[in-house]
Amino acid sequence: MIEAEAAFATYPSLKGRTAFVSGGASGLGAEFVEQLARQGMAVGFVDVDETRGRALERRLADGGAAVRFVPCDVRDVPALQAAIAEVAGMLGTIRLLVNNAANDHRDRVSDMDVALWDDRIAVNVRHHFFAAQAVAPGMRDAGGGSIVNLGSISAHIDLMDLPGYITAKAGVEGLTRTLAREYGPWAVRVNCIIPGWIMTEKQLAEWVTPEAEASIARNQCVPQKLYPDDVARMLLWLAADDSRSCTAQQWVVDGGWL
Ligand SMILES: NC(=O)c1ccc[n+]([C@@H]2O[C@H](COP(=O)([O-])OP(=O)(O)OC[C@H]3O[C@@H](n4cnc5c(N)ncnc54)[C@H](O)[C@@H]3O)[C@@H](O)[C@H]2O)c1
Hints:
It contains eight helices and seven strands, in the order βαβαβαβαβαβαααβ. The chain is α/β, with parallel strands linked by helices. The radius of gyration is 17 Å and the shape is globular. Nicotinamide-adenine-dinucleotide (NAD) binds next to helix 1, strand 2 and helix 6.
């Protein structure tokens, strides 16, 4: 087991480039924002959680990072497009887009109506497309870029009460492939990270019961709990030129969930 942060890789190709992360105020997104800033990237991020977004922005800026938080609900596509334009105007052409914002609301199938269904799709897959559409021409003009979509293990295993979320996350995988094909000629790569069960603050507070811990121990090939930095290290590699020939793929970080 690797103990020290210093033992992990740094990626020279990331230094000085600009990243945009949706849902960057907490959970995996906050870890992504912080790790990308540590690599020397300028990072813009959006979230509905203004308090946490501002606090993270302040902490990173105090440490010398070029960082910009824009409060934004990704279900409001024109607002998301405006936030992307604001970040690009302030921090430079976006070379890395991380489509991370999501909400794993639990919904019973029998309670679903059209408005609820549309909401689950809007928060879990629609904004990925429109954010990619907004950044890709700039990436092309800059010589290329990387788009990373967050999928979910939930689209591959046996879970109840997540019909909208799971449908959207399965859609994220298809979206990844079609955008990779569309944008490949522009040297824009599009990949999907599929996290397993990651111990974010929210997961620990709401879902990780003793029974859940037993399920992790039973289902994962490697027994350790997975944390946001495990996923961030995959993101860094997909963001960097080290992965320049990899696109249209799914990258699973789940401890080998069988
Ligand atoms: N944590 C896990 O175990 C896990 C597993 C599989 C997939 N994922 C995926 O990884 C990504 C991050 O997951 P997480 O666990 O950190 O999620 P989270 O719920 O802890 O954080 C998501 C972030 O997105 C923000 N957000 C929610 N709705 C928004 C909206 N409408 N507009 C803007 N921001 C909004 C939240 O405020 C939050 O900061 C998601 O795409 C999730 O589906 C997570």
